Amino acid sequence: MKRLLIGILVTCSLVGCGISQQQEVQMGQEYAQQINAQLPIIQDPELNRYVNVLGDSIAGLTKRKDLDWHFFIVDSKEVNAFAVPGGFVYINRGLIERADKMDEVAGVLGHEIGHVVRRHTVKQMEKEQGANVGITLACILTGVCNSGIANAAINIAGGAVFARFSRQDEAEADQEGFNNVVRAGISPEGMVTMFQKLLEERKTRPAGVEAWFLTHPLEEDRIAAIQARINQLPPATLASLATDTRNFHIFKARLQSLPPSPPPRQLQ
Ligand SMILES: [Zn+2]
Predict the structure, then answer these.
(1) CA torsion through residues 68, 69, 71, 72, sign
(2) Which of 18, 100, 130, 240 could form a disulfide bond with 8, CB atoms 3.0-4.6 angstroms apart?
(3) 244 an active-site residue?
(4) 149-179 residue pLDDT tens
(5) Which listed residue (112, 169, 176, 210) is catalytic?
(6) Domain assignment present for 263
(7) Catalytic-role residue among 170, 172, 174, 210
(8) In this structure, is residue 53 part of a structural domain?
């Protein structure tokens, strides 16, 4: 872990804190390796194929289509999704199980892809001189921090603390997400219905969506902004976009047939 932190700091001092795409990818690979070693990642080949085909169909049409995108399902019943620089996107089983249609999962992937396309985490690293983000992540994933925040973070399946996006970042990721799914021929209405569902659940059972709200500030105004853009689409265009597929329901049924998610891991 020390190696990773030093890597980021050196990168920073050598190039005045500008992080190149090559450095971003290398960093992302190191993060992903550690995340995959620490979090319960679903290994089922069919489930992974589905989420990667769907993710690639969206990411492959963005201006960062040259990245080698990877999509992983975290076996956690809590709702969350997060992206690591370089094109590594994680979506929790709990989020997929709450989705009723393909366009809802696609909307969340489109949003996470949007964070990577706009380099939000990389920009945070550059701004914070590369230190804070790396240290927070190291802290969570290595279990060296025994503070309340670290416990909360690991309990909600990781990924929470190291990429806290601003409201501005969220608005940008929504805009990107909207464009990303429309470009892929998928309806952006799933973003609206999924986000509404999460806001509803926050009122009735906040613990299950805590991680999502911690990392992705979400209020009614974001939903209204997406809806406003949907209203501007020509009706014929909107009608031509896919909202659901049979494959999505096969995928979801297979996911739900897995044994229950492991309990959240406590820090040692
Ligand atoms: Zn976000």
Answers:
(1) positive
(2) 130
(3) no
(4) 444 444 333 443 345 678 888 999 999 999 9
(5) 112
(6) no
(7) 174
(8) yes
